[in-house]
Amino acid sequence: MKEVRVRILENMPIAAGINRLRFALPEKVEGLRCGRFVNLSVGDGAHLLRRPIAICEHTGDTVTVCYQIKGAGTRLLSARKAGEELTCVLPLGNGFVLKEDEHRVALVGGGVGVFPMISVLKEYAGTGRVFCSYMGFRTKAAVCCEDIFRDGSARAKLVTDDGSFGEKTNAVAAFFADLENAKPDVILSCGPLPMLRALKSGLAERGVKIPCYVSLEERMGCGVGACLVCVCDLENGARARVCKDGPVFAIGEVDL
Ligand SMILES: Cc1cc2nc3c(=O)[nH]c(=O)nc-3n(C[C@H](O)[C@H](O)[C@H](O)COP(=O)(O)OP(=O)(O)OC[C@H]3O[C@@H](n4cnc5c(N)ncnc54)[C@H](O)[C@@H]3O)c2cc1C
Ligand code: FES
Predict the structure, then answer these.
(1) Ligand 2 in contact with 230 (CB < 6 A)?
(2) Main-chain dihedrals φ then ψ at residue 180, nearest 5 degrees
């Protein structure tokens, strides 16, 4: 983990209220991987807390993230221009790791949870794995990165809550409807808590024993395990820090 000053290369809208931000790293950073995240300043001293955002794609010297303009911090971030600098702590968290025998992979993403799913597709491209993607968006205007999911997946279903694009359903329902075709060895997911709960209960109701890992989104302070703002409950009664012990957990391990 390092704190670096990064230079913005691009910060542009890709869907309603969603921006893609690509920045240049000043030096090589070890450990950039899918499912890990960065803690990014928004470019104003009045907003001291950095914002956690998932890594969407990384090359040796650039990182791309996609973020929803939600509150004051991300609104400020959206006003930053190419050429400006931000400070960034990265990489944070544990990330997704596929085992050798996890050949068929189902990706289930909802809302801003679709972005860490992109990082998995990019990271494991060319490894011979078969991806089936189930991505849920609120409405057509929020749909983004369609080509990435279609190009990187053997099966890709992009759906909306209101049916204005694709089927009128959600990512979890779309996944369960296609489970027999997907035949995944492992399920990776990220999205709002109700979506992850629906995934967990859906797996239990159907008696599906396929390994499943979820990336949690909690309010964060320090991002490095020190402040305990981000703790979540585990099924065994213990608590874990989403920033340091996660954000990726086995679905059976966390009390959603
Ligand atoms: C590990 C992780 C990865 C994330 N990846 C993405 C991503 O790829 N794209 C994306 O759009 N969003 C992502 N988020 C959510 C993003 O961090 C929040 O939307 C953002 O911090 C909101 O900041 P704000 O100032 O605009 O909103 P405000 O609501 O004004 O924020 C006030 C404070 O609450 C915190 N906060 C608010 N909402 C969240 C939230 N949902 N999660 C964590 N902290 C929050 C902010 O960091 C800030 O400290 C991620 C969150 C986590 C924990
Ligand atoms: S954000 Fe401080 S411990 Fe996780």
Answers:
(1) yes
(2) -65, -30
CATH 3.40.50.80 residue spans of the chain = 104-215
Q: How confident is the model at residue 46 (pLDDT cuts 50, 70, 90)?
A: low
Q: Specify the CATH number of the domain 104-215.
A: 3.40.50.80
Q: Is the CB of 22 under 6 A from ligand 2?
A: no
Mean pLDDT over 17-42 rounds to: 96
pTM exceeds cut of 0.70: yes
Q: Is 146 helix (H, G, I), strand (E, B) or coil?
A: helix
Backbone angles phi, psi at 64, to 5 degrees: -115, 135
Length of the chain: 256
Average pLDDT for residues 177-195, to the nearest whole number? 97
- The CATH number assigned to the domain with range 2-92 reads 2.40.30.10
CA of 73 to the centre of ligand 2 (A): 18
Give the pLDDT of residue 154. 97
Range list for CATH 2.40.30.10 in the chain: 2-92
